[in-house]
Amino acid sequence: MYITEIMTAIYSINPLLLIFPCTPQGVENRQIVGELACAAPLAAISSPVVLEALSVVKKSFTKKEFIKTTESIFGAAEAAESAFLALLEHQILVATAAASRGSWDEHQWAEAWMYHRGTRSYPFIDMGDESGAIEDRERMREYSKISPPPSNYKVMQGERIELEKISRNDSIQNKLDSMPISLKRKLPGLSMFFDVCFGERGKVSFENQGKFLQKSIPSGGARHPTEAYLVSFEDEELAPGVYHYNVQEHCLTLINKGQYFDLCSEATFDLFKKYKRKPKHLLILTSIYERAMWRYRDSRSWRAIPMDVGHALMLFRVMSEAIGYDSYTYQKFDDDALEKLLCISKISETPLFVGTMV
Fold it and tell me: Which of 51, 144, 241, 298 has the most other CB atoms within 10 Å of its CB?
């Protein structure tokens, strides 16, 4: 950039900038660092006056305005100018045009823009190359030394409702065709629904990692972070309440007994109004992030989590229809209300999608 352009251009703090304390690899002491992307190296911010300067500048400014605003902080105009050029070189300051998010801002998607920009061009291992496969195995070995992978199964305490398991020799289509509609909308139908959508079909082993689940739905690295909960409102065989689907035992565990129709209706906004009839059940899909995190230690890999839930949602829609239910799925809900209802953490497991069974 020419000197005249630098003097007249309008600048902003890079909207991707994250500043936080950490102990970088190979460094003994904790430092304040700046990060612009998960693929970029951390930049140590050794001087507190830099942080103070960044905290006082306006949303947008010229070079002259930056120097004038921060001159007293740096002690002299020359020092402020040197700091400006250094921050510009490290892309902590950028031309405002480069910081523009266009329609992402106009449509209130600024946070999504920051995530996608911040996780671009990650330096993945080339698994198609022999050296890449060797490096990946070595990483897994090191991870396993520190801690084992999280459990494939979540088990909650409560009364258990046993479900019928489909054997390997059974034809799902034949079982559906021979099952009366009266049973499809009762426990036999729900048994098949959970088995087909979320049930364990087998196991697969990975070197230095252990055994992982195979299901009807695909999942990145066979991690299967998606968990399923059923809130039953009106069923002859299921008491009203909140149930967790236990994959390991193929059963429903009653974790919260009671009628939660009004709570769920309010927490999912207008979802219950999509049909004139009231829903019989509400399915809530969550994700236990650490199952994927353990293997994929980069923020970009969160992109696979919604895909995992998407596979489950599609099969939910197909199987709901197959056992005689209408359904409607939503990504809109009150997170706090559902997390409290499911007795889950806001950090390690959160709801991602809901769907009615009408």
Answer: 241
